Amino acid sequence: MVRYVVNTDKERREMMDSIGIESIGDLFRDIDERILLRRPLRLRHSLSEQELMDELRGISRKKADANGYARFLGAGAYDHFIPSIVPHLTGRSEFYTSYTPYQPEISQGILQAIYEFQSFICQLTGMDIANASMYDGASALAEAAVMASNVTRRREVVVSSTIHPEYREVIRTYAEAHGLEVKEVGFDDGATSASELARGMSERTAAVLVQNPNFFGIVEDLCEIERVVHGRGALLVACVVEPTSLGLLKSPGGCGADIVAGEGQSLGNAINFGGPHLGFLAARQSFLQKMPGRLVGMTADTKGRRCFVMTLQAREQHVRREKATSNVCTNQALNALAATIFLAALGKGGFTRLSNLNAQKARYLRSRILELDGFEPAFSRPFYNEFVVECPADPAMINKRLEGDRIIGGLPLRSHYCRFERGWLLCATERNSRAEIDHLVEALRGISG
Amino acid sequence: MKLIFELSVQGREGASLPELDVPELKLDIPASQLRGEVPLPEVSEVDVVRHYTALSRMNFGVDTGFYPLGSCTMKYNPKVNEAIAGLPGFTSAHPYQPEGLSQGCLQILNELSADLAEITGMDAFTLQPAAGAQGELVGLMMAKAYFRKRGERRTKVLVPDSAHGTNPASAAVCGYEVVELPSDSRGCVDMSALREKATDDVAVLMLTNPNTLGLFEENMIEISEIIHDEGGLMYCDGANMNAILGIARPGDMGFDITHLNLHKTFSTPHGGGGPGSGPVGVKAPLAPFLPKPMIERDGGRYFLNYDRPDSIGRVKAFYGNFAVLVKAYAYIRALGPDGLREVAENAVLNANYLMRKLKGAYELPYDRTCKHEFVLSGSKQLAHGVHTMDIAKRLMDFGFHPPTIYFPLIVKEALMIEPTETEGKETLDAFADAMLRIAEEAVKDPDLLKAAPQASPVTRPDALTAARRPNLRWRAADDVPQ
C-alpha cells in the first residue's frame, strides 16, 4: 500500500468497473506510446516514516547543525527571536493547508489576516497601501522598479550600490526582461553619495532605489536623498531589508518615499537557509492601479457583516493575462501570517524595545572589537544592527578559525565589494548575549594577537 | 470579527524580550532620522492566540475537507514533512554560513535537482524560483538569452487559449508578443492553427500537458516537431505533472524547458497562498543560462558555483524556498519510484471515476478519458438561471471546497475538478451525491442556490463595493506617517 493513497485494491477495482476499464493502463491509452516511460524512474526506493525521519535528521546534522553556534552574520537574513505562538498559530492546518482565498465565504481567516498584514506594513513603512506579500525582498524591490517605470513612463532606474548585492542582481535580471536600464551610483563613507546621485540622474530616470539601513548597516539620510530625487521628478523607492529597524528609524513614508519594498523575514520567520522569507510592497494611494500582486479589501456580506475579499483583481494575470501589472500569482501568505502574528505579539512597546536592543548590542559589539589591535572601523556614520570593520587578516580565514570556537563570524565583504579586501560585515541582534559577544572578542584577541 | 487593532488596550504586551545586558548608550542616530511611537496594537499573548485561532476556524484547508480546486492539486500535506523541515539544522542554517557547515542543506538541494531531472527527463535544474509564475519568468528569460547567444531575434510566444493566465503574463513581462493558439473540438491544440502560426519568429510555445482541461495532448510529438523545425523552443508548464509522474516525462515529449510547482505535485502545503516553489529544468543546450548559483558536487563536497558567465543572473536572493524544497525532497524519498507512479495512477483513476458520476447531470464538453482533472460546464443549469458561481457556493453548505470556476476560459460556466490521489472512494461518492443534488435543486429551487452559502461563517461578500471604494487597511484615528 502506497503512503497517502487512500483506496484499497478492492475499491480501485470497483472504480475501474464503474468507469468500464480493465486496467489502470487503460487510463493512459491516449498518450502516444513513443513517449510512455517504459521503465521505473531511477530514484531511490521508498522509505517508511521512521526511516525517512532518521535519514533526514542525519542529513540535517551533517555538518549543517549550526544551531549550537553563536552567530554574528546578517547580510539580508537575520537571527531574531521567534515567540512560540508564531509557529504554533501558523501551524494550524486550517491556515497552512488552504490555498489562495478564491472562495471568501470559507477563507475569512486568511483574508482577514492578510488585511491585518497590509495594515501592519503600512504602519511600519508609513505608506498608504500595501499588498498581500511578494516572494522576497529582492524580487519585491525589482517589482517596485518596474512599477515605478510604469507609473512614470520612464525607462531608467538609478540604484545605490549600498543596496544588497544580490538584490541588485535581481533588479538587473528583471530589468533585462522588462527592457529597463539600470545605473548604479557609488557611496561615500558607507552611505549613498548624494552628489553622485544628483549627477547620475536624468530626465529619463523613473526612480532611485535606496536601501535603509543599507547593506553596510548604515542609516542613510533618506530625507536628504528624497530632496534630490524629487527635485528631478523621479520617484524614491526605499528598500527595507531589516524591518526591525523600523522600531527606531523614521519611516520611509515619513521621509517622502513613493514606494517601499522590503524583506519581512526578521518578523517571525526562521532563516531557513535563505527561504521561504517574504517580500512586502507598499506605496502611495495614487499608485493603487499599478500595484502588482494580490490585495485584500474589507467589505460586507449580504447580511451586512464585516468581511474580506481579494479585490481589484482586474490588475492581475488571471484576469488581464498579457496586460497584467505583473505575472505574480502565488505569494508568501503563510510567511506574511507569521509576520502579522509577530508584530501583534511584540506590539507598540515590544517592537520599539526590540529595535533598541539590536542597536545597543551592535554598538557594544563594535566598540569591543575596535578595542582589539588591528581592527579598524570602515565607516564613521551611524548604523543600526550591522557594521563593517577592517580586519588585520583575511576575514574568511578569521571565520574559519572562529568555527573552532563554535562561532559563525560576519560576512567577508571582498566577494561583493573588491575594494574592501579585509572588510567584515558583522551583525548583532537581541539573540546575542553579552557573554556571546565577549566570547567572540576573546576569540578574536587570540587571532589578532 | 474584530481586527487585532481593535483589541488593543493601552499597556498590554504579548511577548517578552530579554533585558539589555550591555551598557546602554545614547544612540548616535540624528533625531531627524528617528521616529516616535510605532502605531502597533497593544495586546496580550492570550489575546493574540485567541484572535488567530478564531480566524483559523473561519478558514477551510485540505485537513478540513475535500478541496477539489482544479489545477492546484490540493493533495494531503504529509505531517512528517513539516517535522523534517522544522529540524533546527535546517531552520537555523544561514545562507552565508561557511559552506563546510552547510553540507547537509547543499546535499538536499543537489539531490533534489537530480531527482527532479529524472522525474521530468530534463538535464539540469534550478531550484531558485519561489513559485510557478517566477519559474515561467526564468524559463522565458533563459529562452531569450539562448536566442541572443545564437544571434537570433525572435519576438513571439505561442500560448494556447486554455493556458493559465500566468503564461501570457510571463511572456509579456519578458517583452514577447503573445500569440494565442485556439483549441480544437477535442480540447487539444488546433494543429492547422499551429502550423500556420509556428513561424521562424516564434521563440517559444508554452504548453501545459496534460492541459487545463485535464486532457493529454494527442499530437504531442508532432507539436514539438513543428516548433523545433522552425527553430523554436518548447516550454512545459508543469502545473499538471501529478497526472504523469513515472508515466511520461516532459523531456521525452520534446520539451526543452519545464517548470514544476512543488506545492502542487510534490505535496508541499499551499500556505493560504504561498510559499510555493517553482523549480525549472532544462535540456543541456539551455543549461548555461540557468540562474546562479548552481549547487554542485565535487567528490564528497557540495558547493555553490557562481562561475556561470552565460547565466541570466538571479531572480531571488539566496537559493530558493529551502524549507519548501526540503518537504518536496522528503516526499520523493518517502514514495520512491513506484510510489510516485501510483500517485499519478490514483489521481487519474479518481478523476475519471468522479467524471463518470457527474457526466449527464452536468455537461461534459470534452467527453474523453481525462487525466488528473476534468472540466464540466454549468450550461444546463444556466438554463434555469443558475450560474456556476451559485453551484460553487452551494457546495460549501455540503462541507466541500468548491472546484476552480470560470477557468479555463474556453469552457462556458466552467467547473474544473481535481480530486487528487489522496481522497478515498467514499469522499468522491459524497461529493458526487452533493453535486447531483445541487443539479436537482437548480431545477426545483434555484433561489436556494442563489442564496448559498448559508452554513459558512459569512455569506457572499459585496465585491463591487470592495472594488469601488477600496478599504485595504486599518487606520488609527490619529494616524500620521512618521
Molecular structure report:
- The complex is a heterodimer of chains A (449) and B (482).
- In chain A, 37% of the residues lie in helices and 15% in strands.
- Chain A is of the alpha/beta class.
- Chain A folds into two domains: 117 residues, Aspartate Aminotransferase, domain 1, CATH 3.90.1150; 258 residues, 3-Layer(aba) Sandwich (Aspartate Aminotransferase, domain 2), CATH 3.40.640.
- Chain A starts with 8 loop residues before the first helix and ends with a helix.
- The model of chain A has no long low-confidence stretch (mean pLDDT 95).
- Chain B is an alpha/beta fold.
- Chain B folds into two domains: 256 residues, Type I PLP-dependent aspartate aminotransferase-like (Major domain) (Aspartate Aminotransferase, domain 2, 3-Layer(aba) Sandwich); 124 residues, Aspartate Aminotransferase, domain 1 (Alpha-Beta Complex).
- A seven-stranded mixed beta sheet of chain B has the order 1-7-6-5-4-2-3, with helices on both faces.
- The relative contact order of chain B is 0.13.
- The chains are: A alpha/beta (449), B alpha/beta (482).
- At the A-B interface, helix 1, helix 2, helix 3, helix 4 and helix 5 of A face helix 1, helix 2, helix 3, helix 4 and helix 5 of B.
